[in-house]
Amino acid sequence: MSNSSSPVQPGSSTMQSIQSIALEALHQASGAKFGPFAGFNMPIQYGLGLKAEHLHTRQKAGLFDVSHMGQLRVTARNGEGPTLRKGLEAALPVDFEGWPSGQQRYSLLLNDQGGIEDDLMLVWRPGPAPEVRMVVNAGNRQADLARLQALAPELLFEWVDAALLALQGPDAEAVLCALDARAAAPRFMESIELTLDGARCFATRSGYTGEDGYEISVPSVAADRVARKLLADNRVALVGLGARDTLRLEAGLPLHGQDIAPSVTPVEAGLLFGIAPSRRPGGAKAGGYPGATMVDQQLAKGPARRLLAFSSQAPVPVRAHSLVVLEDDTIVGEVTSGTVSPSLGLPILMASIQAQAMNAPVFAQVRQQKVPLTQAKLPFVPKRYKR
Fold this sequence. Notes:
six-stranded mixed β-sheet, 2 domains, Elongation Factor Tu (Ef-tu), domain 3, 9 helices, alpha+beta, Gyrase A, domain 2, 20 strands, six-stranded antiparallel β-barrel
């Protein structure tokens, strides 16, 4: 997921429609370079520069402002848990049976052709007033809301008035525990309520970097105060969307709008884990969600293309949209994401490759040069989640 955004492709929003995030003044005072993304004016990098921000996150703790992401609270109009679960199971390939309270899960909002309209993060919170907390990608906020409302009219979807801060890196737990010792309790993909500098916050132990860390929903009125409190710890540095993109690619995490899109299915993207096992063929609740027919067909016959990972030893960056070819120049795919890994010092990339070429020697077409590619296993850099 995600469930996040890249600065590489700013999108098509006009300057008239650009929105500010809650902490824009803090970013300006911190020397951020801004760029438009998904309709928001976003900090791309700071004075340290992209590589230094990236490595600081791997070594200590990076603080990312991802408040452009959409946060939804989902409830049943009648207030009943069974209605909430049934409504979301009709809209998404999820299964609430055996879903522990407070656990976060990754899911997919699919169209009728099985394409990925968005990837989502959901937290099930039963309690006396059952709800699901959901995070959607920034550029898809309104489209996701409209689709979910149409698929589950018995449910109520409300935007949460909160900033979203991601604290990522090996020092993240120690930094957050200095504000609330309860932050040590959750494991990867578990949630917790914390009190940070007097503000009641909702946090999940998750992120988009491959590092241990948290995504913290902070009431908008307290966001600046909490962010500054975190930054007062000398282990923490502000990190922009530029390094966020290189970090997530090293971790092998796909980006909606590049690696996955409405024309790409979960089978093609290697995201079958976003479909609950019980919703797959032969499962207790098989099918019954948008796009299930196409997904089942591809599971049975195999997809015509797959999203694969590659690296290169050539000292040439391989960027998104570069063509992937065979030795005889036959085009067999396209790079969806690519960068020079700050951690590894070599080009890494994801590419959509035709099935018949998945085991063949392939090359990236970079200007007039054919760059040899070596198929890699994800993640490129080991993940360090607290499990």
